[in-house]
Design goal:
With 721 residues, the protein is of the alpha/beta class. The chain folds into three domains: 5-272, 2-enoyl-CoA Hydratase, Chain A, domain 1 (Alpha-Beta Complex), CATH 3.90.226.10; 307-485, Rossmann fold (3-Layer(aba) Sandwich); 492-720, N-(1-d-carboxylethyl)-l-norvaline Dehydrogenase, domain 2, CATH 1.10.1040.50. 48% of the residues lie in helices and 11% in strands. It contains 30 helices and 19 strands. The strands form four sheets. An eight-stranded mixed β-sheet has the order 12-11-10-13-14-15-16-17. It has a six-stranded mixed β-sheet with strand order 1-2-3-4-6-9, with helices on both faces. α20 packs antiparallel against α26 (617-637) and α21 (512-522) packs across α26. The longest helix has 21 residues, at 617-637. Bound molecules: 3-hydroxybutanoyl-coenzyme A. The site of 3-hydroxybutanoyl-coenzyme A has 23 residues, from α2, β5 and α4.
Length: 721
């Protein structure tokens, strides 16, 4: 981030324009703001003040880097007193009118500063929001008090608890914005407005003193009560939602100023929580994924990708095609016969209809998206495509044949991507001479919904091709994470022990549904057994031998899956798996599964003394997740990911690992490598090689080094990236 500046410019009209200038989002530089406001309030030639931001943006809020410094040092004094000293005393209660001239975005502390001002003038389509809860804190510059007073309690709760921003047009209707003017008139109108306040021709409004939008105390309490109930369900394990409601309630009951004081106190408590640490880590880690050494830092420019061919109209292919057409990219969907092609097109139409039904897409945009789709049965349309994404079944010879066909059918610049989740890219491209443009584009199902795009490169994939796919990924609203070429790549490789540990626990006598419950209580949306039901068993069966070959004796074999398949269960697809699935109701545990589980326990015979083991929920959690951490260590050690933080993002976006725990490696460092190592060592003694700690974990645990610390040069084989 470039150096933060705040400038002051006093015009002949007696208006001082204070401008925040801190590329790229004008994060707030508090000491300089205080200094410039002090100057403007002191100077006799200044009658009124306009506060604005440079380069078409007001401000993205308080500098989040400061939170990270607080997390590293524990030093709360790094957090300046803005709320009372600057926003209440200097701005809101200052002796000169202050108008905020807002455009682009005003988020978090940025919006809070504007709410302390006496009026807000905005350019069209300015984004306004208080997203602090996504960082594990609450608005800390008075936002919890002023937003309800400006837009009403219900709307303010929606904006804060769901971190939902609004546009200035809606802000105008709600009363948050006083006028909307074209960007070129923003400063002129704001200056005039400020002078009119001086001349008492416009009201001198202090938001914190208002009560007209709050409603009666009993109404407000009822709204807060409902919000508490909802937050209990939707924001489990996180303290900031209930804390935000406490602070709002304080202000409603005891007045805005008391609310501001409580807000500042609670903010300081929250900023030190593990939740804030995890979420702030995820914020920066996600942005770091777009920095790929030797790809994004060597002056390359992304090439335009206008037309993409998707081969295979199954679940994955149709999801990928959906994601592409939603971003107005021309897609040619290829299938082997008319029947399959129509099936694929119908799936894409259903995906689009689903988004319309959920209110995520207008009917008009749905029609536009579908106009970008064309179904084909041969390669004639491939002559001018910029990229092909192959999404057929995991069959090596089929993929090899397709790649040698598309090498001939496509222009020489065309990117040749595969959506394989397991097969080595070098094997797929073996029959071509185009290894430099072969790349993995690993989407997660459903591809038009899940945000992660794992971009897999081989040693031969060119930097230009990686950059192009990263750009396409961002254009279709995915978060691309570049990883190396290995079995399962980063996500499936790291999580391969996840369901195996769950099976092992069941064979040790632990209740299957309890395992799922422990995992959902931890924060994943569903447990490993429900996940298997949802994904279908075909994937597990197909990848089993591949994992066996690659990972040898650290694979745990359980007969349970085969047994339940023999029993006619296919998971959610036929309504019967580990759970019973009935339309309109939640998945139900199935008591008739017990004899099958018992058969699996009999066959594996691993219960000590033939008796079920007794474990605490914490032990169950560790026995499921520590083997995942162990594999994550190997993934880091082998250089499959550029940095540990990439695996955090991949786990959050690909496996729905709770973001407030910071991702798998961040969480492991919070738990402590030593504890994880010692537990795994103990379990490997009791239950075998599946739990044996990796060399990397052992080294880090014994030397007291966090798993996320950059690997040492002497580390084993960092050859993949
Ligand atoms: C006390 C107060 O209540 C507390 C607060 O104000 S906390 C801050 C509240 N504000 C937020 O949560 C907004 C966070 N930022 C965002 O959501 C998005 O960055 C944005 C919508 C502003 C812009 O998005 P986009 O254009 O996609 O750019 P994005 O890549 O995210 O950010 C650009 C750069 O600005 C940085 N940045 C964005 N907001 C920042 C902030 N508030 N502080 C510090 N850096 C910030 C990003 O880290 C990134 O840096 P990089 O280029 O070195 O990677």
């Amino acid at each position: 981030m470039a150096e933060a500046r705040v400038t002051i410019d006093v015009g002949n009209d007696g208006v001082a324009v204070i401008t925040i200038s801190n590329p790229s989002v004008n994060a707030l530089a508090v000491p300089r703001l205080k200094e410039k406001f002090g100057e403007a309030l002191r100077r006799n030639d200044v009658r009124a003040i306009v506060l604005t931001g440079d380069s078409g943006k007001f401000s993205g809020g308080f500098d989040i880097n400061v939170f990270q410094k607080i997390h590293e040092t524990g030093d709360l004094s790094l957090m300046p007193d803005v709320s009372v000293d600057l926003v209440v005393n200097t701005i809101e209660d200052g002796k000169k009118p202050i108008v905020a001239a807002v455009q682009g975005l005003a988020l978090g502390g940025g919006l809070e500063l504007t709410m302390g001002c006496h009026a807000r003038i905005a350019a069209p389509k300015t984004q306004l929001g208080l997203p602090e809860l996504t960082l594990g804190v609450i608005p800390g510059f008075g936002g919890t008090q002023r937003l309800p007073r400006l837009v009403g309690l219900s709307k303010a709760l929606e904006m804060m608890l769901l971190s939902k921003s609004i546009m200035s047009e809606e802000g105008k209707k709600l009363g948050l914005i006083d006028a909307i003017v074209p960007p070129e008139e923003l400063l002129k109108v704001s200056r005039q407005w400020a002078l009119e306040i001086v001349e008492r021709r416009k009201p001198w409004m202090r938001s914190l003193h208002r009560t007209d939008k709050i409603g009666s105390l009993s109404e407000a309490r009822e709204i807060i009560k409902q919000a508490r109930k909802q937050a209990k369900q939707t924001a489990r394990n996180m303290p900031q939602h209930q804390a935000c409601l406490d602070v709002i309630e304080e202000g409603i009951v005891h007045g805005g100023y008391n609310g501001v004081l409580k807000e500042a106190k609670v903010f300081k408590e929250l900023v030190l929580t593990e939740t804030a640490k995890g979420l702030v880590h995820v914020f920066f880690a996600q942005r770091l994924t777009s920095k790929v050494p030797n790809v994004t830092d060597v002056g390359l420019k992304p090439r335009p990708i206008k037309k993409v061919a998707v081969i295979g109209g199954g679940l994955m292919g149709s999801g990928i095609a959906t994601a592409l057409i939603l971003s107005n990219t021309y897609v040619v969907l290829k299938e082997i016969n008319e029947e399959y092609l129509q099936k694929g097109i119908k799936m894409i139409e259903a995906n689009i209809r689903g988004l319309v039904a959920k209110g995520k897409l207008t009917q008009q945009k749905a029609g536009t998206a579908l106009s970008f789709l064309k179904g084909v049965l041969d390669y004639s349309e491939f002559k001018d495509v910029d990229m092909v994404i192959e999404a057929v079944i995991e069959n090596i010879s089929l993929k090899q044949k397709i790649f040698s066909d598309i090498e001939k059918a496509c222009p020489p610049h065309c990117i040749l991507a595969t959506n394989t989740s397991t097969i080595d890219l070098n094997v797929i491209g073996e029959k071509t001479r185009s290894q430099d443009r072969i790349i993995g584009a690993h989407f997660f199902s459903p591809a038009h919904v899940m945000p992660l795009l794992e971009i897999v490169r081989s040693e031969k994939t060119s930097a230009q091709v990686i950059l192009d796919l990263m750009t396409v990924g961002k254009a279709i609203k995915k978060v691309p994470v570049v990883v190396g070429n290995c079995i399962g790549f980063a996500v499936n490789r790291t999580f391969f022990p996840y369901s195996q540990s769950a099976h092992l626990l069941v064979n040790l006598g632990i209740d299957l549904y309890r395992v799922d419950r422990v995992i959902t209580n931890f924060g994943l949306p569903i447990g490993p057994f429900q996940l298997q039901d949802l994904a279908g068993y075909g994937v597990a069966v197909a990848v089993g031998p591949i994992y066996d070959k690659a990972f040898g004796n650290r694979v745990y074999h359980s007969p349970l899956l085969q047994l339940i398949m023999k029993n006619g269960r296919n998971g959610k697809s036929n309504g019967k798996g580990y759970y019973i699935y009935e339309k309109g109701s939640k998945p139900k545990p199935d008591p008739s599964l017990l004899p099958i589980i018992e058969e699996s326990r009999r066959l594996t015979n691993i219960m000590p003394g033939g008796k079920p083991v007794s474990l605490t929920d914490e032990e169950i959690l560790g026995m499921v997740l520590f083997p995942v951490v162990n594999e994550a260590c190997r993934v880091i050690d082998e250089g499959v990911v550029i940095r540990a933080a990439d695996l955090d993002i991949a786990s959050v976006l690909g496996m729905s690992f709770p973001s407030y725990r910071g991702g798998i490696v961040f969480w492991a460092d919070m738990v402590g490598p030593k504890r994880i190592y010692e537990s795994l060592k103990e379990w490997s003694g009791l239950y075998g090689k599946f739990y044996e700690p990796s060399r990397f974990l052992e080294e880090r645990a014994l030397k007291g080094i966090p798993l996320s610390a950059p690997p040492s040069v002497s580390s084993s084989s960092r050859a993949r990236l």
